[in-house]
């Protein structure tokens, strides 16, 4: 019978194991026996030497050497004793006995150089043991023990041991041969059986009926083969059923897609139509036309073709846009790319096509428009009471600090504490009122963007310079938190047509968010020019945003995290406004972030955007110039507003400016007041009962006495200039802005050019800031302002906020006859 590899390996292992064990055992036994027998012979030799030394004292005194020789001969009969001799004190051997004689090596080595224990091991064949007689006065007794005898005894013992081990090994081999053969035969049978199962021969049998583990394994394999046979049969049936069900589902899905209310368009990477449904044809008025395999750009309007192109160029992102449908309807399209096959390792799959899903949102847009109008109306209505709240709060705050607190006895602890609490409470009212104002402004901004009523003021913009300015304005916030603010901007960024102030609003919002949510590390701004567009990214090392919140943060009033357990860090309108601004410019905005790995917010701006049209800003350069007042005249102001609180608030502001104030509750009373007297300034609310403010301004301008009177619109209904008005301020009005505008309108004309506006190129650009003046303003670069002052200029210098850091404001403000007004970079809305 051919032996298995298992049998051969087991047998070889046993032989090697026997060799190792027997060798180790023999060496160990020989070593132990050698030590034990050497100790025994040394002990026996010492006993003999002591016995002879003790018994020979008297014999030697009597001079009986024959008795001594007889004694020595007697001890020679003891096993292991090789020789015994007696040497006198002079070292001469007097008596001896040896078998057969004293070895020559003993004679040669003996020189009385012995150790303290009387043991002299001077020869490899003998152990020489000496003992002094009468403390050495009568000589020495030497006893030699044979080492050869020890070796012979050890060899005999090892031989017997090896014979015993060999017998044991042979018995062990016989037993293991039987046991291994008993195990190997069933295993060979199992191997043959496993090979047959591998060839799908599930009807094969294995003849093993033992009750041990091998038998259990054989029965288990037979059971498994039966189950596999049943399973494969079931799988064949399942495949047949799945094929039938798949065909049924394909038919069902085709029916669903064909009856889908939304339009479906699937195209390949070359832009050809792969699949479509009837709803798509109906949306574009194509009837039953077959458009399969035709190019999308030739069959559909430009906005849909452009969206498809964007989806093809950026397949890793979803795209969404509003598109125009047939018969004046509006659709909302969403795109996503799909891939075929599977990727291996780091290799990414190439997109196999793009899916566009189009929904008719005409009705939803109408509902959304009504909602936006409602929000806008409510927000405007909130501005009027908020004007009174903020106005009176600031007046109380100012008069408390200037008039009341100095008169109090602050040495009294209770008075001092009450005064501090009142002052703190008023400050809280002002702060929260301003925060509410900002929220209302954000709501109005996004409502105007959603309704399409946002005013866009396009101009060529140096994006690198704009980004640098935004970073400088945000640097104090970063420095306060110990964050590094880094710019990575190439020098070849092209000039692009944008609404500069709105893009600044986007950049400042992204920078402030990055700084707000970053506790350590850095905030980096990057820009790169790509074909047809510029991409700008703001990257931070903060807490990051979970992937499920990436779309949520761009929705109105939505923020990342749980708003029930996490305190919101803002209104939730900043990023939605940013998205509206960027998308209005034809770009896209998105976030790339993981929790605890920071965030990167990116947006793109196309180099050309035909959808965005510029709306020129109304210039307030003074079609209706302000009259020149006498130096001692006290200006007379007419406040026109239907809200009594607003009139009272404005009255107190103007009275604090040392002006006479008259009020009118509507347009009719304002016209009547203008007929009865003259005024140096008129403020006008637009939304009033009876006569709208714009109509009232038109009638006032028709009156000769009011033709050149400055009119300032202070209204919650508009943040843009109104025809016939010299300035427009939104409610709630900021006192400092109102005071600056009024003083500018009422200032005297000293040189004929009372205003100089600082610009980057020395040319006037009304799109960048408001100009309120009686005549044509003079514009110049910041470096030239001192030239005009040295030539005797007196009047107002208008300085955009971006130029403040490069000017010596303290020196400029100290020039006699010069008033400085700092203009904000962004629009107030």
Characterize the structure shown.
The protein has 19 helices and 26 strands. With 829 residues, the chain is α/β, with parallel strands linked by helices. The strands form 6 sheets. A 5-stranded antiparallel β-sheet has the order 2-1-5-4-3. A 5-stranded antiparallel β-sheet has the order 7-6-10-9-8, with helices on both faces. Helix 19 links the parallel strand 25 (795-800) and strand 26 (818-823). Helix 1 runs antiparallel to helix 4 and helix 9 (362-404) crosses helix 14 (644-656). The longest helix has 58 residues, at 5-62. The two termini are 102 Å apart.
Topology:
Layout: H1 5-62, H2 65-75, E1 81-87, E2 93-98, H3 104-109, E3 119-120, E4 126-132, E5 140-146, H4 147-198, H5 213-258, E6 263-267, E7 273-276, H6 278-283, H7 296-299, H8 302-313, E8 319-324, E9 330-339, E10 351-360, H9 362-404, H10 413-451, E11 458-461, H11 463-480, E12 484-488, E13 496-499, H12 500-516, E14 522-530, E15 533-540, H13 574-584, E16 589-593, E17 599-606, E18 636-640, H14 644-656, E19 660-664, H15 667-676, E20 681-684, H16 693-701, E21 711-715, E22 727-730, H17 735-746, E23 755-758, E24 778-780, H18 785-790, E25 795-800, H19 809-813, E26 818-823
Parallel strand pairs: 12-14, 18-19, 18-20, 20-21, 21-22, 23-24, 23-25, 25-26
Antiparallel strand pairs: 1-2, 1-5, 3-4, 4-5, 6-7, 6-10, 8-9, 9-10, 11-13, 14-15, 15-17, 16-17
């Amino acid at each position: 019978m051919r032996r298995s590899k298992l049998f051969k390996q087991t047998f070889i292992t046993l032989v090697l194991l026997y060799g190792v064990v027997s060798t180790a055992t023999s060496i160990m036994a020989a070593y132990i026996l050698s030590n034990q027998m050497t100790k025994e012979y040394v002990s026996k030799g010492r006993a003999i030497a002591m016995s002879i030394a003790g018994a020979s004292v008297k014999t030697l005194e009597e001079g009986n050497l024959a008795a001594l020789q007889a004694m020595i001969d007697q001890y020679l009969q003891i096993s292991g004793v090789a020789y015994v001799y007696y040497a006198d004190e002079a070292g001469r051997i007097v008596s001896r006995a040896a078998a057969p004689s004293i070895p020559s090596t003993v004679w040669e080595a003996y020189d009385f150089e012995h150790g303290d224990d009387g043991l002299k091991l001077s020869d490899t064949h003998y152990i020489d043991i000496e003992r002094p007689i009468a403390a050495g006065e009568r000589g020495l007794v030497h006893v030699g023990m044979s080492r050869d005898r020890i070796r012979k005894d050890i060899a005999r013992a090892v031989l017997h041991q090896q014979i015993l081990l060999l017998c044991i090994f042979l018995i062990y081999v016989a037993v293991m041969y039987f046991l291994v053969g008993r195990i190997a035969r069933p295993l060979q049978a199992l191997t043959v059986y496993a090979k047959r199962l591998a060839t799908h021969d599930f009807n094969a049998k294995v003849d093993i009926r033992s009750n041990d583990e091998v038998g259990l394994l054989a029965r288990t394999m037979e059971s498994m083969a039966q189950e596999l046979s049943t399973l494969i049969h079931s799988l064949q049936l399942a495949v047949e059923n799945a094929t039938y069900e798949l065909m049924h589902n394909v038919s069902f899905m085709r029916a669903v897609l064909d009856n889908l209310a939304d339009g479906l368009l699937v195209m390949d990477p070359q832009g050809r139509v792969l699949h479509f449904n009837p709803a798509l044809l109906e949306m574009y008025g194509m009837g039953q036309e077959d458009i399969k395999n035709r190019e999308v750009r030739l069959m559909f309007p430009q906005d849909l073709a452009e969206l498809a192109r964007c989806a093809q160029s950026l397949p890793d992102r979803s795209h969404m846009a509003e598109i125009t449908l047939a018969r004046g309807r509006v659709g909302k399209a969403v795109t996503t790319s799909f891939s075929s096959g599977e990727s291996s390792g780091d290799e990414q799959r190439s997109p196999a096509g793009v899916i566009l899903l189009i929904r008719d949102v005409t009705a939803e847009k109408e509902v959304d428009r009504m909602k936006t109008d409602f929000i806008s109306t409510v927000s405007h209505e909130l501005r009027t009471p908020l004007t009174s709240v903020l106005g009176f709060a600031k007046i109380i705050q100012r008069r408390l600090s200037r008039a009341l607190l100095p008169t109090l006895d602050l040495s009294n602890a209770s008075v001092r504490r009450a005064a501090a609490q009142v002052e703190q409470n008023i400050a809280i009212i002002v702060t929260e009122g301003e925060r509410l104002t900002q929220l209302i402004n954000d709501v109005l901004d996004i409502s105007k963007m959603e309704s399409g009523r946002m005013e866009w003021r396009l101009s060529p913009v140096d994006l690198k310079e704009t980004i640098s300015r935004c970073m400088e304005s945000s640097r104090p916030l970063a420095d306060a938190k110990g964050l590094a603010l880094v710019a990575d901007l190439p020098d070849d960024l092209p000039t692009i047509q944008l609404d500069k102030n709105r893009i600044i609003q986007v950049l400042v919002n992204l920078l402030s968010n990055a700084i707000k949510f970053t506790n350590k590390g850095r905030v980096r701004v990057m820009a790169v020019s790509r074909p047809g567009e510029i991409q700008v990214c703001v990257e931070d090392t903060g807490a990051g945003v979970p992937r499920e919140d990436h779309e949520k943060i761009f929705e109105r009033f939505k923020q990342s995290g749980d708003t029930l357990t996490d305190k919101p860090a803002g209104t939730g309108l900043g990023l939605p406004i940013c998205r509206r601004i960027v998308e209005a410019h034809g770009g896209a905005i998105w976030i790339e972030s993981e929790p605890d790995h920071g965030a990167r917010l990116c947006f793109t701006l196309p180099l050309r955007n035909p959808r965005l049209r510029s709306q020129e800003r109304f210039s307030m350069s003074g079609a209706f110039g302000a009259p020149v007042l006498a130096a001692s005249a006290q200006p007379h102001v007419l406040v026109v507003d239907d809200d009594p609180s607003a009139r009272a608030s404005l009255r107190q502001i103007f009275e604090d400016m040392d002006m006479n104030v008259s009020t009118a509750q509507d347009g009719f009373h304002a016209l009547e007041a203008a007929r009865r007297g003259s005024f140096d300034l008129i403020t006008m609310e637009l939304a009033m009962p009876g006569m709208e403010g714009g109509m009232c301004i038109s009638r006032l301008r028709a009156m000769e006495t009011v033709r050149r009177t400055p009119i300032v619109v202070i209204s919650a209904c508009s943040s843009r200039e109104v025809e016939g008005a010299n300035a427009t301020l939104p409610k709630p009005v900021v006192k400092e802005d109102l005071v600056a505008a009024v003083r500018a309108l009422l200032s005297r004309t000293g040189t004929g050019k009372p205003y100089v506006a600082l610009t980057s190129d020395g040319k006037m650009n009304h799109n960048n800031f408001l100009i309120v003046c009686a005549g044509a303003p003079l514009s110049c670069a910041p470096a030239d302002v001192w030239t005009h002052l040295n030539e005797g200029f007196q009047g107002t210098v208008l300085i955009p906020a971006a130029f403040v850091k490069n000017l010596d404001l303290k020196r400029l403000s100290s020039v006699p006859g010069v008033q400085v007004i700092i203009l904000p970079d962004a629009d107030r809305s």
